[in-house]
Amino acid sequence: MTQPSKSDSARSTSAKKLIQKLSQILDNHKGERHVIVIQDFPDPDAISAAYAHQLISTAYDIEADIVYSGSISHQQNLALVNLLGISLLHFDRSMDMSVYSGAVFVDHQGTTARQLTKALEKAGVPILIVLDHHEPQSTPNAEFCDIRSIGATATMYAQYLEQGILELDSGAEEHMKMATALMHGVITDTNNFMRAGPEDFYAAAFLSRYRDADILEQIMNQARSKKTMEIIQKALEERVIAESVSIAGIGYLRSDDRDAIPQAADFLVTEENVHTAIVYGLVQGADQQESIIGSLRTSKLTLDPDNFLKGALGHDASGSPYGGGKHSAGGFQIPVDFLAQGKGEEYRQVKWKAFDAQIKQKIFDKIGFDSSAKTQE
Fold first, then answer.
1. Residues 62, 135: one domain?
2. Do 291 and 363 fall into the same domain?
3. I need a labelling partner for 171 at 20 to 30 A (CA). Which of 65, 113, 297, 377 fits?
């Protein structure tokens, strides 16, 4: 019989300590109502982890709402929410955030949910818990933080569940749904396990006891929409390749089409002689606010997306970085602020050309590329 390694034992001990601390904090807040904040444009990892936290909270007599302020448009994300019946609340400025006793940040550290974070600050709602697998950003003060470089936040929740923070029943429908969602989160955030570490494989093995394989297959096999294919085609047409980095500014997008940006980056990085793809567009939210939204994908092992984006794009006035990431992937969001909206197509195009040129130049500077030289197409 194979004996557990020292690293396995240390990992188990560390996980148990985290679970004990998290359990104690949840126990201290029994009877409260919490808000689980996920990033503006949530992915399967964020949605599944938030759903898991919601069910765990229920076991501690805590009512928890999952809230986001952007949109969900990726076909798999929509299928995940609809097939599993996950309830998400869309934030708007009329919401009374003061009804919540505390906030939980899942799969982010506040930088990708700026509007919600500001609303919580204004309402005086304390941040109780931060759970994330991205590189450290400008982490807010919280009673409990678990920020680790790991394949997925869903992996972290699988570890909590395996250590007994919530007793799972294979016959309980809600536990099946949670395990199915978490499995999808692990799969997508590790690029079908190609970027998975030991913890992610352990998590998947544990979740496989409870997940519904048929529902998971339905979620994973969603076809791309026509609009997504059009945006990918535009990214291909607009791309500029410099030093094996493919850069594509795709202009204005509806908030509902925002999830096509990472899909376009996934596609561009597969091109021959390209190791990194960066795709971005100008997205207008439901509140009429505009932001430059972008995604980075890389196959280059020595390129750290988190350091690259922070170094290229910098920080806002409060010191929060515009971009960040994890191994092989990253994203960024830059508010347009007072230049937002404006009347007339001519104004829109002038504004886009200015932002497009500025983003490209920052990336060129970061990779040491002379933008005056002829680029490859």
1. yes
2. yes
3. 65
Residues 54, 102: Cα–Cα separation, whole Å: 13
Question: String of b and e for 191-218 (b: at least 16 CB within 10 Å)?
Answer: eeeeebbebbebbbebbeebbbeebbee
Q: Region 251-260: what's the mean pLDDT? A: 89
Handedness of CA 345, 350, 353, 359 (dihedral sign): negative
Please check whether residues 240 and 213 belong to one and the same domain.
no
* Total length of the chain: 377
**What pTM was computed for the model?**
0.78
Q: Is the dihedral of CA 364, 367, 370, 375 positive or negative?
A: negative
Decide the pairing of beta strands 127-132 and 144-147: parallel
pLDDT tens digit string along 271-293? Answer: 999 999 999 999 976 556 788 99
Tally of domains in the chain:
2
Looking at the structure, do residues 248 and 188 belong to the same domain, yes or no?
Answer: no
Query: How far is Cα 319 from Cα 107, in angstroms, rounded to an integer?
Result: 20
The answer to whether 39 and 91 are in contact (CB under 8 A) is: no
Helix (H, G, I), strand (E, B) or coil at 293: strand
Q: Report the CATH number that the domain containing residue 262 is assigned in CATH.
A: 3.10.310.30
Structural domain harbouring 272: 226-367
pLDDT one-digit tens code per residue, 119-128: 999 999 999 9
Our separate counts of H helices and E strands in the chain read 12, 12
Residue 83 contacts residue 72 (beta carbons within 8 Å)? no
